[in-house]
Amino acid sequence: MVGINGQANALLNLSFADLLSAASALRDEGHGRVQSWSRKVFIPLTQLCRNLCHYCTFSQPPRPGENAYMTQEEVLTVARAGKAAGCTEALFTLGDKPELRFTVAREELARLGHATTISYLTEMAALIRDETGLLPHINAGVMTREEMAALRRVSVSQGLMLESVSYRLCRKGGAHYRSPDKEPAARLETIRLAGELQIPFTTGILIGIGETRAERIEALEAIRDLHERYGHIQEVIVQNFRAKERTVMAHASEPDMKELLWTIAAARLILGPEMNIQAPPNLSASDFPRLLSAGINDWGGVSPVTPDHVNPEAPWPEVECLRMATESEGRMLVARLPVYPAYAQDNGRWQDPAMVRHILAHADAQGFAREDGWSPGIALEPRVTRPSTLPIDPKIAAIVERALAGALLDEEEIATLFSARETDLKHICDSADALREQVMGNEITYVVNRNINYTNICAYKCSFCAFSKGDKAEALRGIPYDLDLEEVVRRTREAWQRGGTEVCLQGGIHPHYTGETYINLAKAVRTAVPDMHIHAFSPLEVSQGAATLGLSVEQFLIRLKGAGLDTLPGTAAEILDDEVRAQICPDKLSSDQWLDVIETAHRVGFTTTATIMFGHVDTPRHWARHLIRIRDLQRRTGGFTEFVPLPFVHMESPMGLRGEARHGPTFREVRLMHAVARLALHPHIRSIQTSWVKLGPEGVKACLTSGANDLGGTLMNESISRAAGTQHGQEMPPAAMEALIRSIGRTPRQRSTVYGAVAQDMHERGMAAEDLTPMVLTAPRKRRKEQERFEYAE
Hints:
9-stranded parallel beta sheet; 30 helices; alpha/beta
């Protein structure tokens, strides 16, 4: 220790009460009410260690007849048990370089095909990742740059407790005597290397082993300085020494709670509001809720499967106990991954490409852990909401009040609403539902329609789309087709006979289509069934069609209107943020181009819908920007009839198969999208639709009580979501629609596309409709020469 600097002197002289108050306020500034934790399994790969720390019971000497290392089968057994219990983290903790001290370690490693413990650890981490999908977090002691780089390829984060920067503790009589890997310089170098290698890193200090308060401050400042240089320290642990039997320090005094709280608060003030600071709850027994008063925002890893092998005498609290204690202090327990949100979201910088797909499989839009295994397209079981004792966050309550009053929420306010959980989530959904009732009454509307996707051949390469086929990709996810006009007309007539009032015409961007193709489609339908409402052609199709004819978008839309087009679907919007579009649809219309086409359509006299396709690589901030752009356009034109959230279905999508996207939005995020849309678009867009084909009956029920008022179309034929892997079928007949609506105490009303009334005879025709006849999927033109036809009864 060179000397006490100004900040250290201030901390040492600050009153205990003022220190805790300042630390708590700083924590709240950086993390709000969120108190995180990680659901983990503990895998002690080996308990042999070359160090002789005077307080440690984890390190064990070789035992005759026992393996020095866990076997592959033992490692997998623990990991599989953790996966079954809903864990996301596989925590590897092991002794430092036992092969440098023990012959038995060297011999066993040789039999396993490895020269070092780190080499075997690398293999086991990859095994767990590939076999179970759990995310390895590695605590393997002091390592070389090469060893850390190898482990980076098979883990999402690594860690090494600095413990102390006191060299006194390494001398005879000190806690770290005869422990070469506890030399402060060696440990600081490992932490520095992690920064160079861009490894999300956990470190911390151990208090009560003979260090002074000033030395603790010096250690925390060393951690701060490394983080300021590299930005890689995701978490700092303040751990209190516990005296253990059969150790040199068995009778040493343990730091009391006040000393622990003082150190945690000092860490918060030194490390700042954004740092994640943790104190293990199991090392403070029943007093652990008091740790919250000192400014921690994380409880660390808690396992429902394995004990704390480092402190086996101190069991972890049950998760429900942890939750109750957290809420008793006004905070909200949120599960995280072993890699913290900032390092999970910026995965291009902080993660090896081999780890990204596994992170995305577990992550929600904020980078925390998904609440469960549900994804859009999968059947949703009825849910029982766990009551929360937390009051509503005043900040969220104020934003909701502004929205209800018709204020124009800004990006920050909307993103804050999208972060809501538990009590705040319920408040937002309840408020949105009350607003829905105020604006739209208790009717739930739907339209009897038929989707006609006239081709699945597409020249674009949208990475979220499982529907489209390349012109020559006949083996890709089914058979490519290009419908004859006769088949489009036949399906239109059948839809009319079955009570349909709308046909929705959309397809891939076929490289041989021109604007005349779209005009002829509209003319054919209008001629065949003059009273059918034609809802057709996305902004991308309009833009492409206009370009092929050398027309402006406005000129082409006027021609489409003359051909019989009534309204346009606001699809192909995806996320109206070019940062996201560059990843998921780089060759598609830009955000501004999409908006320009829609605004032109409104100017020409068309109304359109507006959509968002969410839950892939996007974040709540992107959602906020999308809503604002839709709202601002609506304020200029008034041309949107409804807003339609479309949850991303990942199962068969190209980027889902490649592991480049999350597994769709979580159920919490789905509810929030409908509720926040109701609030943020009020009073400019009155109707919020929910998608039964993506969410199923239970999902749409939840959204219809979270601000949505429309159930969309019966569809008759649905191809796009089913191609992506949804399990919810291709048609929800009017009778089923109305039964679902009545099941939540609402009144069903069949509507027209533009929310007008529908003739009684059409309603009755829909309620008594016969089964659909098999569809004919006409082969692409190049195969028609061979007179090949494909029939497919969907």
